[in-house]
Amino acid sequence: MANSVNISIEAPIENQIQEITYDGQEIYLAPLSMSENLARLAQKIDFSKTEDDFIGPAIKKEGEGSSDTKSEDETKDAGYQSSMWPWDSVRTKLRSALTEVCVLSDVLSIAKEKRYMVLDPIPAEQIDNRPMVQVYGRKKALAAAAAVLLAGVERLKASETMRTARNMPDFHIDLLRLRQNWRLKKVSNTIVGDLSYRTAGSKFTQTGVFEVTKASEDSIAHQMSLSAGAGGGAGAAPSALRVTVPPELQGVAFITVLCQKEQEDVVTATLNSSALNCPSTLPGEGAELHWQQKLEAAQNVLFCKELFARLAAEAVQLDASIPHMVVANQIMATVLPGIQLLIGLCHNNGQNNQNNGDGVKSEAQSGAGIGKPEHDHVLEHSLHQLLRAVHHSNTHHPFPHPATGPLGPSKRRCLAGPMAADRYELLDMSKEQSLLEQIIQQAQHFFMRRRAEIVLDTIASKEVKDPLIVSHWNALNSPTQSCVKINIMSQGYDAVCRTSLVVHVGEKTLKCICRDGKVRHMSYELQELRDLIYCQIYQHQMVAVQAVARCMGWQLLASSSHLGSGPVEPLGNASSCLLASPSGDRMIAVRCEPSVGIQVFIAQSPRKDFFVSELVQDKKWEHLGGSFKEIKLERMEGKNFLNKMELLMACLSSPT
Amino acid sequence: MHRNLPQNKEALLKSYTTRLKEDVKSMLENFEEIIKLAKGDNESQLNRMTQIEQDTFEMQVRAANIVRAGESLMKLVSDIKQYLILNDFPSVNEAITQNSKLFRTKQQECDQKLMSLRDDIAADLYDLEDEYFTSIYK
To answer: Which family does it belong to (chain A) (predicted)?
Structure first.
């Protein structure tokens, strides 16, 4: 244990070390006395905090007690402490507390006096039941708002489902269809369409404006139920569109053209012409038409009105020899002497139906007895066609023409320069035929054609049996010109001889081109055609006899188509021919007079009644031939004249 | 859409855009306002019950505004459709060309049929005329 180490044990220091000297001695601070310790601690106390804190009254009292003790200490230790400052804060606190207490006592005394100030009790603040009421209120408000929203949604949904579920037509689809077929535009809030022929070249002043509206759902449903009830076929297809046409274009209109014999009293003719009355009821009237049909009908009304207005204006302007008459809705024009053309406009728009309905009925009854003449479909059609042609020519100008200008010279006028047309030709070009003139020409042609037909048919079927008259009407013709080819031939001999002629039927004249190339012009008096045909028939007979004679070996001695002898014919001239048999001993003479007919004479040589006289002593003179004796043709055998002649020739040439 | 539209057409198209924006904006704003009201801790001078009533009515009005905006949008859709239908000239032109083509072919068909019919009738008429005028029964 020699190298054991000494261990020093020290008690822990109780006092704080103030300083350590160089020799290692520690100088301790003297421990604080009780009062010093208290002052140190008191310095740490924050009285303001103590006052403000929510501490129970007991603690407060403690604090008060301590402060009391401190104040005592303060007085006690005043001399002891070198500085007063550790208790300074306590002192200031106490002072301010004193002040406050003084103020309080002042206030209390004033309040107690009740002279200057009265203290009112403040009602205790209610316990708030606001949140629940507010929540209920908001809930209600939100529910109301939601209901409004739902109602709005329902409305939208209902309108949508009603359309789709019931297969209702869509307005916009219909509008699209309408737009594809008609001109539409939007003017402020309405959709307006135009059904006039303005874009097609019409210059009629009346507008064809119609309005497009959306149909109400009730009416669509009604329409759908109707069409469903009618089986879908009869009723118009339901549409979501309504088309409103101006009243002057409603209903149905048409132009009637009627040709009739001229009546003595023009006024009564106008009043009594029952043929031009409109039918009082129209098919499909009353039923709601589809917009397409409605618009087409309105367009037709407009077209008819334009046509009639134009015709009426022309009728007034034209100075014809017999003036045209325009009375109310009728135009009267004289086509040919004794024949009148009546053009009427019938417009039934359902409004004036009532007032003229009775008149129509009574007239229809009176007219039924007379038998009302048929109106002319062809002329009505061509009237429509003529106006359409006018429209077409208004928009289609021949090139070259200014790209922007609506006008342009006609093709003929374009050519007038290069062709060096003179003034008269130019004047002639400027004349344009009016519609009325054209339709009158067509009517005239129609009558000429019909009359020519009648003349040819009566001659062929009733009056002349012997040579056959075959007429062929040409299929190619124009509204004012047609052509008929007439063949005259005898049955059985059509290979031997046939006479053909062509008749051109024009508007007021006939032109006949005969086989020999002669052209004859005739007027509208059909007697001329008749006479010509008769002449041709007799001429044919003469030519045919000669042809038959040639076939039989007979010899044509002489023929003359214009015989100078005999009585003067009222129509043409008599013609004749003289034929000799092959042996030369028989002769036939045929004389044809249109007014009498055909006479045939025969003579033979040697003559049987030849007697030698003092003058003619030689026997040879008996070969001169004797006097001609007439043959009673009607008692001869044979189908027709040529057949009879053939038999006669055969008989005469046989050596008996 | 770089074509030169007329002034009023352009204005119309612009008005469609503004209507669309306005309506959508109105929907959104009204909805936001309703939500705000539902949240609502706005102090006011009014009595509480009055305040609640006012809120209720305001919400209803705003909901109605939303519905109105919705219907206005439907109307806008319909207006735009109408505008398109009425002003879509290319499609109209197409329809017109198609129609005219259709009618032209129809016309040609009819013409051809009529021509052949006329030829047949003319030939028959010739024979019949021949027969009629040469027969004894006339």
So the answer is: Belongs to the Mediator complex subunit 17 family.
